[in-house]
Amino acid sequence: MRSAIVLGCVVLLAACSNPRQEVTSQLAQQVLLPAHQQWHDRNAALVQAVKGFCEGDAERTSVAQAFMASQQGWSYLQPLMVGPLSEGNRSWQVQFYPDKRNMVAQQAEALLDSHDPLTQQALDGASVVVQGLTAFEYVLFDDSVELQADKARYCPMLMGIAHHQQGLSGEVMALWEEAGGMLAQLTDFPNDRYASAEDALGGVLRVQITGVDVLKKKLGTPMGRLNQGVAQPYQAEAWRSRQSVASLQASLAGAQAVWERVRSLVSDGELAGKIDQAYAETRDKLEALPAPLFELVQDPANQPLLQDLYRSLDTLETLQQAELASDLGIQIGFNANDGD
Amino acid sequence: MPLTRRTLLSAGAALAGVAAVGGWAFWQGRGQSPLLLSARNDDAGQHYCAGYFLDGKQAFATPVHERCHDITRHPFLPLALFVGRRPSRESYLIDLRDGTLVQTLHSEPQRHFYGHAVFHRQGEWLYATENDLSDPGRGVLGRYRLDLDALRLVRDGEVPTHGVGPHQLKWMPDGESLVIANGGIRTESDSREKMNLDAMAPSLVIMDRHGERFSKETPEHRQNSIRHLAVADDGTVVSGQQYQGPAWDSVPLLAIKRPGQPYQTFPVATEQLAMMNQYTASIAIHSEQRLVAMTAPRGNRFFVWDLDTAETVVDTPMSDCAGVGVVPSGFAVTSGQGRCRHFDCRGGSVTSEWLDLPSGWWDNHLWLS
């Protein structure tokens, strides 16, 4: 780069004089950064769990628990994913979803066939399809994988993915915490990313609202909403580990954490109450699901239950996308979603 | 002042120097900030043909029925055509003095606009990329004559663009030949649905305005739709692509055709490609500074590179960055979601300031005059 960009305008607003700046700063320091740190810590724990299992000091269940923690840490992050994790194709490296053509299984086995044993360098240089939690889940949970009996083949992949995730989350944390990094960009204005706290708050809310829309897709796709009503259980997120509902719950909790910080800015008390209620209803309906999503979608008798949950998500999305955005004067999308 | 042929031509005479000395010099010579033309929306979804001075003052905002995309200014009359966005069948001829809608230009039956058009340098002809709906995707270059007596653009004919799904077109320095980005994607009438992603045929065509083809070249990747263009004063063409393949693929999204050389990849860093989310929008070349700028709205990223060495000059986040245009000091950039920016690229350092233009809702192209 020829030189760093020097911002022409250096007028900084006093944080406490602007409620939106205060909320944005709180979001950054008390919600977004801690969520990234939690994800990073869980990735570090995943490395240790794999090491214990592959060296024979721990059972497979300890790896499964560590995987679920990483998966949920990632799910919690998705509605909060402003900045580095959403850029540079990094999110594809965390999770390859949706996997419409079962590419994870095919490419994981092909990579293992071509490297004996698989090296970290080979995995880091391979496709994003095999670098993330979806490939890890395949090795750990797929019925076709004889993990216990063939540790020599599969442990290098588990360890490689765990290290890759740890490296990725470490890189993202550094980009948040460095001087002028994402944390600074969400607290001191103007900066190279945002002209004002209003811009930054808009950026956070757009991601959060989009995140709720993604939840609808994660539920609706296995229900068959995109497939003429024919269920697609293998299109459920984390179907191999039966963690779809837990992932949805974690993402909803992440979205709600943003909402709870933003609520104070809403001028319409009735609207705030409706959004509170929509979160509570959706959370309750998720908790009440009696079985993994992979199983629920395959029995037509469960359709009313799932449709009811879908409607709750839809209500939540509409309240936020239309009414909350309007109340706060936040623009949701334009060219980025509908360009040419 | 009422809009008549006499008043328009009078204004045209006063503005005739614009083409010769450049719009910036003209407006600044009159003590005014440059005029930015762009399609824009408001919060309620109303579409506008908008003109704002870069200092933030609104010149006009004319509500129109359809969303527009690119703009082409008449070379000396105070007129500009705001071109309907794919698959629109309307474009709007606007009087730049006050925003009056002079004409709603309707596409021919079995044709729709693709969002881009150019006025010929002598001011009599306008050329627009269009879709032949009787053979969806077959690109045609619609030809329109500006009838000064009636103050109307009148359809005069068409020639093929020698490709499928044409998008942006630009004049080459001779002012007679055109470079056309044939995106390679077939779409049906009134639809933006892509019909042939497995059999795309993008191409970069250089042809004269009467349809004679001089060259036709293709990108390395068949699913790399060539969409947007900029041409330097020396005839160097830079194109921006939108990749239709998997989101995680790493494919080149910029290409360059230097005078006398084949069309080839413009070498940008893999990390920068990953920031673009397979989608480039607007391109501008600053011929004096030898810089090329590009917006990547889906990646929320704005870039400037040295046109000759491909060295990175600017690589910065910018929310839904949309249109980019050349100003003497560097570039002005609009945004679909946030504040617009100015980048001063003179000298050894780049400085940036946020402009006082309205925030957000700017479409992907702009025209500065």
Low-confidence stretches of chain B: 17-26
SSE succession of chain A: EHHHHHHHHHHHHHH
CATH superfamily of the largest domain in chain A: M75 peptidase, HXXE motif
Shape field of chain A: globular
- Average of per-residue pLDDT values of chain A: 94
Query: How many extended strands of chain A?
Result: 1
Portion in beta strands of chain A = under 5%
CATH architecture of chain B: 7 Propeller
CATH class (first level) name of the largest domain in chain A:
Mainly Alpha
**Overall pLDDT of chain B, averaged?**
92
Describe this structure in words.
The complex is a heterodimer of chains A (340) and B (369). By secondary structure, chain A is mainly α. In chain A, 63% of the residues lie in helices and 1% in strands. Chain A starts with a strand and ends with a helix. Residues 9-15 of chain A have low confidence and may be disordered. The radius of gyration of chain B is 19 Å and the shape is globular. Chain B has a single domain, classed as YVTN repeat-like/Quinoprotein amine dehydrogenase (Methylamine Dehydrogenase, Chain H), CATH 2.130.10. The longest helix of chain B has 17 residues, at 5-21. In chain B, the strands form seven sheets. In chain B, strands 3-2-1-28 form a four-stranded antiparallel sheet. At the A-B interface, strand 1 and helix 9 of A face helix 3, strand 23, strand 26 and strand 27 of B. Strand 1 (5-7) of chain A pairs parallel with strand 27 of chain B, so a sheet runs across the interface. Chain A: One of its GO terms (cellular component) is cell envelope.
